[in-house]
Structures are given as C-alpha cells and as structure tokens.
Amino acid sequence: MVRLACSSKIEQRWQCPDSGWVKINVDGSVSTNNNKAAIGGAVRNSYGEWLTGFNMVTGIDEIFKIEARVIVEGMKLAWLKGYKQVEINCDNVMLIDTICNGFASISNIAEV
C-alpha cells in the first residue's frame, strides 16, 4: 500500500530524512537566452549520504511545468532504484501546495 504524506515547511538548512527514508532535493531553471531549461536532483539517505542523482536539459516551458517535471523525474529515479519511502524537497511552494491539495487549485494541471 502506498501512503502519500504531504506537507510544506521552510528549512533553514538541509535536514536528513527520517530513518529508512530518502530525500530528493530537486530544482529547475530556465534560460531565456538559449530557450532551454535544466532540471536535476540529488538523492540522499537518512545519514545525509549521496545515493544517486540526475540532471537533464529540456525544452523551455513555464517554470511551474519545469519544476513539476523535475519532481516526476526524481520520483521515477527513486522508484527505479527501489526507494519507496521518499521525501521531496522543492522550493516551488505553489507546486507543493497544488500537489498537497489534490491538484484542485490549478485548472490546467493536466498539461503538467
């Protein structure tokens, strides 16, 4: 059974996830100069040790969609590596709020 727990909090510094969990720190950026975006993330265990990471260049899009994609790619990687208890750290508060509230606050969420 998959359990989804969602919360939003401000971290002053990086904090390890609970024992048995991994944390994925993700971010995306957009360059209007060359019409590209980049996404990436790092997966760490409850001791703060680096387990794996990813990065990729994508086409330019709205930052909301870019950061939604980085979460999806991070989750895909985590599950592929066998990590099922995953905490996501993302700086896009609107996106986290949208995910936590069942995507109800955005009418065009299907585009993401």
UniProtKB/TrEMBL annotation:
InterPro entries: RNase_H-like, RNase_H-like_dom_plant, RNaseH-like_sf, RNaseH_domain, RNaseH_sf
Pfam families in the cross-refs: RVT_3
Domain RNase H type-1: 25-104
Protein name according to UniProt: RNase H type-1 domain-containing protein
